[in-house]
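**User:** I keep going back and forth on a fold encoding question. It is easy to fool oneself when nobody else works the same problem. Could you pick a protein and write out its sequence and tokenised fold? Could you put it straight underneath, so I can go through it closely?

**Assistant:**
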Amino acid sequence: MYVKFFPANKSTFNVSEILQIRDMFTGWNIRDSDIFGPYELLNFTLLGPYTDVIVERHKSGVNKGVLAGIIVGAVALSVTLTALISVFIMRKWYTYQTSKIRLKIDGVKCFTFGEMASATNNFSNSSQVGQGGYGKVYKGILADGTVVAIKRAQEGSLQGSKEFCTEIELLSRLHHRNLVSLVGYCDEEDEQMLVYEFIPNGTLRDHLSVGNSSSNNSWHVTGKAREPLSLSMRLRVALGSARGILYLHTEADPPIFHRDIKASNILLDPKFVAKVADFGLSRLAPLSDADGTIPGHVSTVVKGTPGYLDPEYFLTHKLTDRTDVYSLGVVFLELLTGMHPISHGKNIVREVNAAYESGMMFSMIDGRMGAYPSECIEKFVALALRCCQDETDARPSMAEVVRVLENLFRMTPEVDTTPSESMSTSSQSVTPPSSLPSGNPYFSTDVSGSDLLSGASPNITPR
């Protein structure tokens, strides 16, 4: 649509009037009606007597303000984002450096990636001795000839950086013959490795799985024949494990809750001394309040391994020392029966408890154990089931567990420390019924525990 304007009462518009008309259209100051509009200025042409009038084109003040606001806002946003990213990077770098300095002060040896590769023949398959949810375990020989186990995390492993740092912090301060010893660690080139003393006899689960398919766990040592454990050896392992956990509960300062006690986390050295391992999920016990009161639990997200989890902890999220007692009780039941905690929908605690109450307990005992004193077995079963009570207060303390096991161990016939030695039996000894299968019908793949953790550094008094 073309619109022509003519002045009233005179022949032509002056320059001021022309500019006013032009500004009216370019500034969108045009009234709309219900019938016509909206309007948009396509061209402003001066004809006739106005062809010689020069009208300078300029942008409206409104557009300049909007453009300036956009530019200023973009600059401010860029500066803010740059500052935030810089602060984040600096904090991460400071935390990382502080952590490495602290670990060095604590006396933990930091290995280079090259040293780890050299110790394991560049992580060859022949050096691999195990694999689990965390990653792979390699047997390595350090430059000084020390034989070690190198636990190398894989990308996307169940244990993350918090678990990695926690295990280093705890193990560097814990010293007990029934706890695995940390030699050092490697944390470079996006690699996380923990270096432990090498335990040639593998895990307790390896020995309980003799004749069965082996469990898949991060400490499993492959390619080595296992002999069944006698009752005396099983009690020795139970007692050693209990003593290691008792140290965590009572002699560490502050005390520590392991939170992932299971057969695949109990290692056996050449003399079959039990060593508790894998502190990736451990938590520090609560400290005393201002009035000197020590809380009885730590409220935390539930972590652990199915089959070993304390049911009260699972429901209330309250972690206590009795949580470890429950898990160790499940290990005792494994020692007695050879079963896995959960298999084919069956729970070892319920199965053993039902057999115990019906007087059929000896039908559950592992047939590969050999002959055993019946009174000793009955008391061991009773202790295991007390540890596995649903109510926390109904379970014994770890100190009481150690005392009972010490008494039971004295009841067993005198034998050597290796399981291959024959065990002499007393007049009370019972030979398992021949109808019992030598193999174990229970089998399940071990489920590794997984992340959380207290970032605090415990002050541990070495034993």
Summary: Residues 200-430 form a domain with the Transferase(Phosphotransferase); domain 1 fold (CATH 1.10.510.10). The CA atoms of residues 178 and 275 lie 4 Å apart.
